[in-house]
Amino acid sequence: MGAVVYSGLQAEHNATAAPGVKPVGIMIVTRLKAQAEEVVSDINAYVGRHVAVADHTDSRATPEQFHEIIDEALANVVEHTQLKLDELSRVTGRIAHEMRLSHAVEVDALETLRECMLFQAGANDGFGVGTSLAWEAAGSLEDIAALSIMSCRALAGAPRASS
C-alpha cells in the first residue's frame, strides 16, 4: 500500500508542478502479472484518474506511455553524502592555524570524527572494505561528530562521558 500512496502522491505532485519542472516517474516491478495489474488499478483508483500503466506479455505499454510515466533517474528523491577516511585526513591536515583558532569547535569535531573512523578502520582490517561515513544531507557536523563519538566508544567498550 505504501508504494500505491507514494506513487499517487507523486502523480499529484507532477500534475501541479510549476512550468519547467520535469515530472518524476516511478517504475514498480512485481513478480506476477496479476500483481502488476493490481498495483496499476490501486494507483489509478487512489488518484482518481489514469496515471499508471502495466507492461507485461499480456498487456504491452506503448513507447509514449513509457516516456510519459517512467523517468530514468531518481531526481531529487535520494541525497547521499559520504566522507572517506583518507579525504578527511587530507582535509584536517591542511587546516591553517588561524582557521583552527577561529573554528575550534568545528575542527575538534572533525578531528574526533577522524579518530573514530581510524578506530573503525582498524576494526575493518582484513575484511577488504574501506572506512567511510554516510549521513543525511541535512545533518550538522556536531550531530555527525556526536554520533561518531558514541559509536567509537561503544565499539571500544569505553564508558560514555557524562553530560
Give your account of this protein's structure:
- The chain has 163 residues and is mainly alpha-helical.
- It has helices at 2-15, 33-47, 63-69, 85-93, 97-102, 104-124, 141-156; strands at 81-84, 132-135.
- It folds into 2 domains: 2-69, no CATH class; 81-156, no CATH class.
- The protein is built from 7 helices and 2 strands, in the order αααβαααβα.
- A two-stranded antiparallel sheet has the order 1-2.
Keywords:
163 residues, mainly alpha, 2 domains, 7 helices, 54% helix, 5% strand, disordered C terminus
Give a topology summary.
Layout (H helix, E strand, L loop, with lengths): L1 H14 L17 H15 L15 H7 L11 E4 H9 L3 H6 L1 H21 L7 E4 L5 H16 L7
Antiparallel strand pairs: 1-2
Helix pairs in contact: 1-2, 4-6, 6-7
Percent in helix: 40-55%
State the secondary-structure class: mainly alpha
Rg over C-alpha atoms, rounded to the nearest angstrom? 24 Å
- Termini gap: 43 Å
Largest sheet: 2 strands, antiparallel
Instruction: Sum up the overall morphology in one term.
Output: elongated
Topology as a string of helices (H) and strands (E): HHHEHHHEH
Strands of the widest sheet, in order across it, are 1-2
H/I helix tally: 7
Number of spatially distinct domains: 2
Determine the mean pLDDT: 76
* Proportion in β-strands: under 5%
Number of strand segments? 2
* Poorly predicted ranges: 158-163
In summary, what is this structure?
This protein has 7 helices and 2 strands.
